[in-house]
């Protein structure tokens, strides 16, 4: 159906699809963290966390470096730019202000008289 070539954008969205990886990124917003500190709040093995970190690094969302004996993780926010630009393409429509829309409908239907209602013109909008 579709070609199976993964683009960098695909890797970013695949990495973001997992709630554990999103939580890791949120933690790294604060500061760089040692891998053991990243693993601490999760009820999973260090090996499982390491697999999540490999996926995040492959997507370019984090970088890892060794400082002495400790491996550190750092957020790479620029990797999210392509995903952000892609998603902004879908933001071309303004969000609907439901309160303003309801007030508009009330004003419109308040102007209809009994004759209009009898003729079926004052029906409620589908909703």
Number of helices: 7
Q: Please report which band the strand proportion falls in: under 5%, 5-15%, 15-25%, 25-35%, 35-45% or over 45%.
A: 5-15%
Q: Helix share of residues?
A: 40-55%
Distance between the termini: 36 Å
Question: Which regions are unreliable across 5 or more consecutive residues at pLDDT < 50?
Answer: 116-125
Radius of gyration: 25 Å
Quaternary structure annotation: single chain
Specify the structural class: mainly alpha
Molecular shape: elongated
Mean pLDDT score: 83
Q: How many β strands by DSSP?
A: 3
Order of helices and strands: HHEHHEEHHH
Strand order of the largest sheet: 1-3-2
Sheet with the most strands, sense and barrel status: 3 strands, antiparallel
Can you describe this structure?
- The protein has 127 residues and is mainly alpha-helical.
- 51% of the residues lie in helices and 11% in strands.
- It contains seven helices and three strands, in the order H-H-E-H-H-E-E-H-H-H.
- The chain has a three-stranded antiparallel β-sheet.
- Strand 2 and strand 3 form a beta hairpin.
- Helix 1 runs antiparallel to helix 4 (46-58).
- The chain is elongated.
- The two termini are 36 Å apart.
């Amino acid at each position: 159906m579709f070609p199976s070539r993964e683009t960098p954008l695909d890797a970013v969205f695949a990495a973001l699809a997992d709630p554990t990886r999103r939580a890791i990124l949120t933690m790294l917003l604060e500061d760089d963290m040692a891998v053991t500190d990243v693993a601490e709040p999760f009820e999973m093995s260090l090996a499982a966390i390491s697999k999540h970190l490999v996926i995040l690094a492959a997507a370019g969302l984090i970088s890892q470096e060794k400082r002495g004996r400790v491996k550190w993780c750092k957020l790479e926010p620029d990797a999210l730019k392509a995903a952000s630009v892609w998603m902004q393409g879908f933001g071309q429509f303004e969000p609907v202000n439901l309160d303003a829309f309801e007030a508009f409908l009330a004003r419109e239907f308040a102007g209809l008289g009994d004759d209009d209602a009898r003729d079926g013109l004052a029906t409620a909008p589908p909703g």
